[in-house]
Amino acid sequence: MNLTKPATLADIGRAVGVSAMSASAVLNGSKTSTRISAETRNRILEEAARLRYRPNAAARALNRRKMNTLGLAGIVDSGELNAYFLEILNGVLEAAGRFNQNITVFTLHDWNVDSGRLADFCDGRIDGLILVAPVIAKPQPELFPAHTPFVSLHSNHAIPGVINIESDEEKGAQDIVQHLLQQGHTDILHLAGPAGMLGTRRRLAGFKKALAAAKPRKLVARSIEGGFSSEDAASALRTWMRDNQGATLPTALFCANDASALGCMEVLSQAGLRVPHDISIAGFDDTIAARTSVPQLTTIRQPLRQMGGKAVELIVNREQNPRPESDNIVFPTQTMFRASVAQPPKKPIPVPDLR
Amino acid sequence: MNLTKPATLADIGRAVGVSAMSASAVLNGSKTSTRISAETRNRILEEAARLRYRPNAAARALNRRKMNTLGLAGIVDSGELNAYFLEILNGVLEAAGRFNQNITVFTLHDWNVDSGRLADFCDGRIDGLILVAPVIAKPQPELFPAHTPFVSLHSNHAIPGVINIESDEEKGAQDIVQHLLQQGHTDILHLAGPAGMLGTRRRLAGFKKALAAAKPRKLVARSIEGGFSSEDAASALRTWMRDNQGATLPTALFCANDASALGCMEVLSQAGLRVPHDISIAGFDDTIAARTSVPQLTTIRQPLRQMGGKAVELIVNREQNPRPESDNIVFPTQTMFRASVAQPPKKPIPVPDLR
DNA sequence: CTGAAAGCGCTTACAG
DNA sequence: CTGAAAGCGCTTACAG
Hints:
Shape of chain A: elongated
Distance between the termini of chain A: 61 Å
CATH architecture of the largest domain in chain A: 3-Layer(aba) Sandwich
Oligomer: homodimer
Number of domains of chain A: 3
Number of strands of chain A: 12
Strand order of the largest sheet of chain A: 2-1-3-4-5-11
Largest sheet of chain A: 6 strands, parallel
Order of helices and strands of chain A: HHHHEHEHHEEEHEHEHEHEHEHEE
CATH topology of the largest domain in chain A: Rossmann fold
CATH superfamily of the largest domain in chain A: Response regulator
Number of helices of chain A: 13
Structural class of chain A: alpha/beta
């Protein structure tokens, strides 16, 4: 394969018989571009086309101190991007296209271990960095180099100087539990996220608020710690079912997120129970998983794509508008009514024996 | 926010009282690095740490003509990366980590329209470009600048000078249809991909081979054009069911990929049919969707992550080994036996009325 | 052991 | 209207 070198402004200048600056003025639209004679201008354009000239990105970045590239950093768990990250990535890519930005994805494995790497990314290869669900208990300033703007999504802790984007999770949780109550459910199990996480606390708070607001009637409501992954949720539910062998099965499950809801669906399906006929399930997030599951998942939509797009927008517009509207931007949530929630079964069902 | 400028080698040199080159030698490990006195060396290291020096990526890239970044270009359909792309992205990111490469994602919407953009990405911002399932009927050389190495995954057409990575799709299709036959299925409907696509033809060929190899017995087998998306498959199946109202329902569906299998599952579920009790379904790819669906999908695994990793490896090792082992690398497939395929129902079931 | 020079490809003042 | 100069931050020969 013939790896010829790409043409430079100097090459074009030489071919046309002008300086590289003239070529620059014509091709890369600096202020002087209009002051080049039409004649020269055309010859430069022709030659550039002939040589397939493309301005070198590194050279330009060095000069302008701008790469037109934003970084997106998030956790890759068990070698796999999760559906939540994917939604955000979709929104980020879409907005990046609109703003003419490239997106470089940085994968981390553990915020405790890897938060020190963030600063390494700020070496001129990106103009800003978007943190997806960072968990940085002690956000020391040296982790966030001052010359690079950061924006976070669902940050677990406030980071000084970093705008955070989130959604009203508590309200969302409250809404969906209210929906379950309206459907007639009287025995709801909340499969919560990992203890100590902000999202876990907020969903739990919404769960409790909805119950408190319910008309006084015989309600059973409890929550157990599950996790944000299918596996963690499945194993938490299995454990709970073993421990509650023969007791009455809840009529509905409110899960920490879509992934955990699907993990539970799998466990229930293996136990011979049908969703929503025997038991209703609600998730949280409205990721692609909620839309492709069978039955489709009733869930709380966080507008993750818009939130990702907003992150891009904030960084890109930072120059014109360095003072953001707020340091914590909250998006509304929305209940997505789908097939996984129905009315409770007429008769109570016992917790099945897991073979 | 205080956007101070990052420290440069010159800053360090000035502070220590040596030249920027000495700092370069010590910090960025050029050949001469060992020849700096221990004393100077230490003072440079200390100062660099104090100033949080980080070599500027753009400057280094300009000098070395290497960005340590690879591009990944693929289609974003209806604003959404699909699960297939996601698997590859996971493999690419993993391998990129191993080889110390960054990954920039470029989203295209239509190969016909956007293939011209590929060359624009080759402006020094990436050192190589991975094409995901390109469909470029006339792969003219000017689309692929000679100074940038390209690798494709599942290319629909051979591209001169571009190594392609694929899997043995025909064999995979043959295997899974054989599995259906072994389970006792005698009426199999193949919901094929879009007409004219290489992957569609290969799966169809495998389907036919398996049928031909089956012991002669009463078999019904047919195929209809569906598509690679849930929506297209669902609508194709709905149409087929309307057209075949009251006829005998196939006992098994072999779908073009996992996404289309899930689309079909949704249609069947809405029609009150249960998988696999009433009808079996098999997919293709083994994406995350196959593992999170309920029931989990029996499917053909294409090792998409390894394939993505291989693409990275080929580009990174290109310098040492510019002549690749082959210009078309074929990975083996594997049948994933899961819950969506079982034995056919005892009695034939009629094609249901879609309300 | 260390530094002055030149260059990567582009751009931005500044002269003419 | 056009070009010579200087600089972005780094690296690679080449001198001393």
